[in-house]
Design brief:
There is one protein chain. This protein has 152 residues and is mostly helical. Among the domains are: 39 residues; 45 residues. It has seven helices and no strands.
Length: 152
């Protein structure tokens, strides 16, 4: 199992994948990073696979599953509410921004519903009346246009 994107590029390259475009798409690394790794590999310079740098993550797999479960169960909750609920269930305290980042990494996306008014009873009644009034219309003699004015 490959844990490092750089290691993935090296393994793919050694297994015969030489195209930078394919290596970039499979590893999700930037183009310049892929070219740099390929340059080192072609020169025969050993490419070191360094451990992660920066602050250690306090959120584990169990915590990630917990916020994913809460998101599926309560799809209208905000990231702040999800992080607070996860904390009350035993997860470490995280900010709403960290919760958003974790959800985005898991494939969840923010979606806002469209504001589209529903048909009222009056709208429905007038539609039915119009249809009944035009039942006998010969629609083969009607020209439909897309909001353009034409004089025949």
């Amino acid at each position: 199992m490959v844990f490092n994107k750089r290691e993935l590029v090296i393994n793919l390259f050694n297994s015969g994948v030489k195209s930078p475009k394919i290596l970039q798409s499979r590893s999700k690394l930037s183009r310049s990073q892929v070219f740099h790794i390929l340059k080192l590999l072609k020169q025969g310079v050993p490419v070191e696979i360094n451990p992660r740098r920066g602050r250690k993550k306090i959120y584990g797999q169990t915590d990630r599953r917990r916020i994913a479960h809460l998101t599926r169960k309560h799809d209208t909750w905000s990231a702040k509410k999800i992080s607070n609920e996860a904390e009350s269930r035993g997860s470490p305290k995280i900010s709403a921004k960290t919760c958003q980042r974790e959800l985005r990494d898991m494939g969840y996306r923010k979606q806002m519903p469209l504001n589209k008014p529903m048909l009222t009873k009056k709208h429905k009644r007038t539609r039915v009346e119009w249809c009944q009034k035009h039942l006998q219309t010969d629609w083969t003699k009607v020209i439909f246009s897309d909001e353009s004015v034409s004089i025949v």
